[in-house]
Amino acid sequence: MKKTTMMDVATHANVSKSTVSQYINKRYDFMSEATKNRIKASIQELNYRPNIVARSLKQKTTYTIGVIVSNILHAFTTQVIRAIEDTCQAADFHVIVCNADDQPEKEKRYIQMLRDKQVDGLIVFPTGENRELYEEMVHNQFPIVFVDRKIEGLPITSVMLENSMAMEMAVEHLLKKGHKKIALLTNAIKFVLPRQERVSAFEKLAKQHLLPINERYIVSKELNQLQNSLHELLQLEEVDAVIAGNDLVLFEVLNYITSRQLQIPDAFALLSIDDVSFGTLYNPPLTAVRQPASEMGKKAGELLLAKIKGEIEEEQTTYLFEPIFIERSSSGRGEGI
Amino acid sequence: MKKTTMMDVATHANVSKSTVSQYINKRYDFMSEATKNRIKASIQELNYRPNIVARSLKQKTTYTIGVIVSNILHAFTTQVIRAIEDTCQAADFHVIVCNADDQPEKEKRYIQMLRDKQVDGLIVFPTGENRELYEEMVHNQFPIVFVDRKIEGLPITSVMLENSMAMEMAVEHLLKKGHKKIALLTNAIKFVLPRQERVSAFEKLAKQHLLPINERYIVSKELNQLQNSLHELLQLEEVDAVIAGNDLVLFEVLNYITSRQLQIPDAFALLSIDDVSFGTLYNPPLTAVRQPASEMGKKAGELLLAKIKGEIEEEQTTYLFEPIFIERSSSGRGEGI
DNA sequence: CTGTTAGCGCCTTCAC
DNA sequence: GTGAAGGCGCTAACAG
C-alpha cells in the first residue's frame, strides 16, 4: 500500500506541490477559493496525511520532547510524567519517556538516543554522573530542564522540592507529638541530591534539638535490606518514630510492620516523605509530607516549552516547591506530652 | 551551533558520504582498515551523531511504536505499559504513550498523530468506537495489536484476560466461603468488552447457582457515584459480599468502608478484580483476582515487533491470559458454612 | 573498495 | 495567486 504524498494531492488537484504545502500550512493569504476547495477535496478524497518525519527533517523540529526519569517506580515520578504529558499535550508536543533506572550509563544512552532522534528538548531527573554530556548540551544551547535534582555549577534550570523544609516539617511534627528518638530510613543510591539534602537536614535538626540519638538512627541501605536493618535498629535502640525517606522505603516499613504484626503508632510513630495512594485508607491513616508532583511536572513542562520556543534563556535557576504536610494518625495521636 | 553532518565527516576523513554511511551501518565488508580508522577518528573528533529523522525518512521506519491506552489511571495499564517498554527497549525501539481517557475522539486524534509521525506500529486499548480507523489500518496492513479488548469481526490480534474465568474465580470463591448475596460493582463506561464480559459472566453464574439476588446487586455507575450507590444497596438489601470490578472501583469501596468505619469481612466480604500495591498491607489483606499485566504487556510488545518485522501475519487471533486468584482475608475467613 | 547519483516527502524563496 | 527548483541528512543501487 503506497502512501499518498503531497505530490499525489497536487496532481489530483491540478496544482503544484508548493501550493498544496501552502494550503497545509494555512498560508492561504492569497489563494483563490477555488484552488483552496479543490485541494481540500483532493486531500479528503485521497485521504492524505502529511508525513511529519519529512517535515521534521526540513524544519529541524520534531514537536517531541524526551523525558528521562531516574526511577519510574516512585509514585512521584509517575505523577510528574503525567503532568508533563498533559502540559505538552496541550501544546501539541509528544513525549517519549525513558527510565534510566538510576544507572548513569543508561541515562547517557537515552540522552544520546533522544538527541539523535532530534527531540526538541529534554526533561531529565539527572543521575549527576554525566557531567560532560550535560555541559555539552548547555554549550550547544540545547533546551533542557532538570527535575528533582540539580547539578552544581551548571546553568541548567531545575525544578525541585525544598528538601530541607520537608525534613523540617517531618521532624518538627514528630517532636510536637512528643517523639524524641527519631530514626530516618532511606534507600542508598550513590550520590543523589534530594536524599543527601534530606539526610543533612535531619542531622542538623537532630543536633539543633539535642535529640538523644546516634548515627545508628540514620539507616541508608539497599531497599531489600531495609527490613532487616530496621529490625536490627529496633532491637538495639528504643525508637519512638520512623521517617521513611520516600514511598518505596515506606513500603518496606509497612511490610515489616505487617509481617511482625506491629501496631502503629504504638510500636513507633510513622511518617513518610511522599504520600501514597492508600494513605487515607491504611489503618492507621498515614501521615506524610507530600511533594506537589503535578505542579512540579507542569512547571518543568512549561519551562521546557518556553525554552524551546526561545521565550526564556538558559540559566541556573532553581524553582523550589514547598512540600505539603498531611497529618493523619500514623504519627501519633493527640498533642503529645 | 551547526550540527555536524555526514558530509562534514566525509570531508574530514577524505572519503565520500556514502562511505561514511557504509561505515555507520556496519557494512564494512570490503572497507580497508585505513579508511575505517580514518572515519572512526573523524567521527570522534567531530563528535558526529547520525540524524535519525533523516534516516527514517529514507528508510520509512522510525523504530518507534505508539501505545494508546484507554485509561492510564488503572494500575493494570501502567504495568502493561512498563512491560511493553521493556520489551521494545530490548529491541531498540522507542515508545510513545498516549492516554485516550476513554474518549473515542482522543483515541482517533492520537492514532492519526502517531501514524503521521510514522510510528512503525501501534498497541491500542481500543475504545471500540473508531471502527473505520481500525479497518483502514487493517486494510493498509499497518501493524497493530489490541490489548484488553477486541473488536468483533476485525482481523486484529488481541491480548486479553479471560474475563469470564476471572469472574468465575471470584464468585466461586465467595460461594465456597459461604456467601450467597453477592453484589458486583463496576464503573460504567460506554460499551467496553471486559466489563461487559464480566457482568454477563456474573449474571450467568448467579443464575447457575440460584443466588438469591436481583438486578439491584449489579451496580454500574460513574466512579464518583459508586459510594452512594453502594450505600443505597446496603440499605435495601442484605449483602454478604462485594466484588469490585477493577482497582478504581475498589478504591471507592475502600473509601466508603473507611468513612463508615466498617469492619471487613464482617460488614461484607470484599474481593476485587485487579490486585493493588497495598493488597497485603491493608487490614484485612485484600483478596483479589490479578491480571498478569506484565506478561500481557510483554506479549503485546512481542507480537507487535514480530508483525513489524514481518515475522507474523495479521490475523484475528486472541491471546487469552488466565487470571491469578490471590486469596487473602478480606473475602472471609475459614471455609465458610 | 569507494564515489556518483538519485531520491525519501516536505518546505521555502523566488520567479512568473 | 501559483509553480519551479533546491535542499534538509541520509541511504542504496550502481558504476568505476
Top keywords for this entry?
homodimer; 337 residues; 434 Repressor (Amino-terminal Domain); 3 domains; alpha/beta; six-stranded mixed beta sheet; elongated; six-stranded parallel beta sheet; DNA-binding; 16% strand; 12 strands
Describe the structure in your own words:
The structure is a homodimer of 337-residue chains. With 337 residues, chain A is of the alpha/beta class. Chain A folds into 3 domains: 6-50, 434 Repressor (Amino-terminal Domain); 60-161 and 293-322, Rossmann fold; 163-290, Rossmann fold (3-Layer(aba) Sandwich), CATH 3.40.50. Chain A has helices at residues 6-13, 17-24, 33-46, 52-59, 75-90, 104-116, 131-139, 163-176, 193-208, 226-236, 247-260, 293-308; strands at 64-69, 94-99, 121-124, 144-147, 157-161, 182-187, 218-221, 241-244, 269-273, 287-290, 318-321, 324-326. In chain A, strands 2-1-3-4-5-11 form a 6-stranded parallel β-sheet, with helices on both faces. A 6-stranded mixed β-sheet of chain A has the order 7-6-8-9-10-12, sandwiched between helices. In chain A, α5 (75-90) links the parallel β1 (64-69) and β2. Chain A is elongated and about 85 Å long. The termini of chain A are far apart. Chain A binds chain B through residues 1, 47, 49-54, 56-57, 62, 64, 72, 78, 82, 85, 94-97, 99, 112-113, 115-118, 136, 139-141, 251, 254-255, 258, 276-278, 280-283, and chain B through 1, 47, 49-54, 56-57, 62, 64, 72, 78, 82, 85, 94-97, 99, 112-113, 115-118, 136, 139-141, 251, 254-255, 258, 276-278, 280-283. The structure holds a DNA duplex (16 and 16 nucleotides).
